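Would you mind writing out the residues of a protein together with its fold in token form for me to study?
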Amino acid sequence: MNKKGMVDFPMWLAVTLLILAIFVPVAIGMVNDLKDDTAVLAAKAEADKIENMVKGAYYSGAGSADTVSVSLSGGSCLVIGGDGSDSYCISILIDDTVFEKMYLQRPSVRFLGDPVYIMGNNRTVSAECVIENGVYGVRVSVID
């Protein structure tokens, strides 16, 4: 039996375990980031549908309304409106963490009323263009 091979094996094993110890956490982190990115992209596509519906109702003038069906998976949530500058945006949340805020521009549409939280599959969202207390904007609600 070769004594050099007996000495080299523990060294080879130690180096292999060291490489795995470094690589495995990095790979797990990359997979988690990929899951978050996929969830954000899917939620952004649904937010785009809502944005287009809202802009259509806004351009059509006070009294006009429209609906759209939205499906969000897992821990995804869309928050429409809010206080201050949030009254002009759709926020994308994944597991209660804000990943992106989409501000409606051209036109800058204001969401009236309390923030609307949208979660789950096959939700019907309604937008109605209204004038409340002299403020022109869109009121969004979840029908079902």
Summary: The first helix runs from residue 3 to 60. The chain has one domain: 3-142. Residues 43 and 72 are 6 Å apart (CA to CA). The longest strand covers residues 123-132.
